[in-house]
């Protein structure tokens, strides 16, 4: 049976974002061409919805659809004044959220993270939203760790994404998580979009092309990528770039959009994922080859960033699962 996805369209929904889930998930098929997801849109009371873009849309289902969904996607809605002032959901929206099962996966696109936060679904978690509203989000919901520097955050059951194309990224991420890299890559090609952008990538980069290539950190980035298995430090990277730690950190963030150590961690996670997907290396050897040193550290970072253990990730992505894998 296809995985059932319900998209909730609320008043003021952004029309382009409303179509993202159906466009991306409908492109995911098994090798025989059978769709892996079934996407349906609903609204409160099944009523027509006024979009942010000056027209109304008509849907065929009301919020009862949320009860039977495996995944619920909250399409982008700019937070209303009442929500921004009080941090509380309107009663009808709260009633709709109450229909979502405790095991149902929930995804917010862009500023709909405010709705998940007001519903209490993000308490004690890390989350993101559009960078322009991250400060307001953090002030309104102090129990949430707000990360303005990423495209999306996967907490396992609950996911939040940044603005615009980040909605496509989080949908492709879920296809990859559910069915592996090959299926996600094929879906991306059908949609004619980039096959994979990491959630840890910055929402925007201030200086994508350094004005002075001789003072760029790009050579040091490549140097670090060639040495992921080694115990690199921030001081090591700054020394290679012939800069002070402070100068290197400032220039690195300006070019890449994140800190050197966060970038290095993301690269190591990427390396570990590739090895788990494509090799039969034990978890211990994957941890060593990707620079985590030991399986305990690898499991800790996988749990924090992916919501899965390395073995669960390997199984989910159809990679070899040898009986000799270290536990």
Automatic annotation (TrEMBL):
<dbReference type="Pfam" id="PF01965">
    <property type="entry name" value="DJ-1_PfpI"/>
</dbReference>
<feature type="domain" description="HTH araC/xylS-type">
    <location>
        <begin position="218"/>
        <end position="316"/>
    </location>
</feature>
<keyword id="KW-0238">DNA-binding</keyword>
<keyword id="KW-0805">Transcription regulation</keyword>
<keyword id="KW-0804">Transcription</keyword>
<dbReference type="InterPro" id="IPR052158">
    <property type="entry name" value="INH-QAR"/>
</dbReference>
<dbReference type="Pfam" id="PF12833">
    <property type="entry name" value="HTH_18"/>
</dbReference>
<dbReference type="InterPro" id="IPR029062">
    <property type="entry name" value="Class_I_gatase-like"/>
</dbReference>
<dbReference type="InterPro" id="IPR009057">
    <property type="entry name" value="Homeodomain-like_sf"/>
</dbReference>
<dbReference type="InterPro" id="IPR018062">
    <property type="entry name" value="HTH_AraC-typ_CS"/>
</dbReference>
<protein>
    <submittedName>
        <fullName>Helix-turn-helix domain-containing protein</fullName>
    </submittedName>
</protein>
<dbReference type="InterPro" id="IPR002818">
    <property type="entry name" value="DJ-1/PfpI"/>
</dbReference>
<dbReference type="InterPro" id="IPR018060">
    <property type="entry name" value="HTH_AraC"/>
</dbReference>
């Amino acid at each position: 049976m296809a995985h059932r996805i319900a998209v909730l369209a609320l008043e003021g929904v952004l029309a382009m974002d409303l179509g993202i889930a159906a466009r991306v998930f409908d492109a995911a098929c098994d090798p025989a061409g059978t769709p892996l997801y079934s996407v349906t849109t609903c609204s409160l009371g099944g009523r027509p919805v006024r979009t942010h873009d000056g027209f109304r849309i008509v849907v065929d289902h009301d919020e009862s659809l949320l009860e039977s969904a495996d995944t619920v996607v909250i399409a982008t809605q700019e937070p209303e004044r009442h929500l921004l002032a009080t941090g509380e959901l309107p009663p009808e929206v709260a009633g709709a959220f109450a229909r979502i099962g405790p095991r149902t996966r929930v995804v917010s696109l862009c500023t709909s993270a405010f709705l998940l936060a007001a519903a209490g679904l993000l308490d004690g978690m890390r989350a993101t939203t559009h960078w322009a509203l991250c400060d307001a989000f953090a002030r309104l919901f102090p129990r949430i760790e707000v990360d303005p520097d990423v495209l999306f955050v996967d907490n396992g059951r609950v996911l939040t994404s940044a603005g615009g194309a980040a909605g496509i990224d989080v949908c492709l991420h879920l296809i990859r998580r559910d069915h592996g890299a090959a299926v996600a890559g094929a879906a991306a090609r059908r949609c004619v979009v980039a096959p994979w952008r990491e959630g840890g990538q910055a929402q925007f980069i201030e200086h994508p092309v350094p004005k002075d290539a001789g003072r760029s950190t790009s050579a040091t980035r490549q140097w670090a990528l060639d040495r992921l298995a080694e115990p690199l430090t921030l001081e090591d990277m700054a020394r290679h770039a012939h800069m002070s730690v402070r100068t290197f950190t400032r220039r690195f963030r300006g070019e890449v959009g994140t800190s050197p150590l966060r970038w290095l961690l993301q690269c190591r996670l990427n390396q570990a994922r590739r090895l788990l997907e494509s090799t039969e290396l034990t978890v211990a050897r994957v941890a060593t080859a990707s620079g985590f040193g030991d399986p305990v550290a690898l499991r800790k970072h996988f749990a924090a960033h992916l919501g899965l253990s390395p073995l669960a990730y390997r199984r989910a992505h159809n990679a070899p699962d040898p009986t000799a894998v270290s536990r």
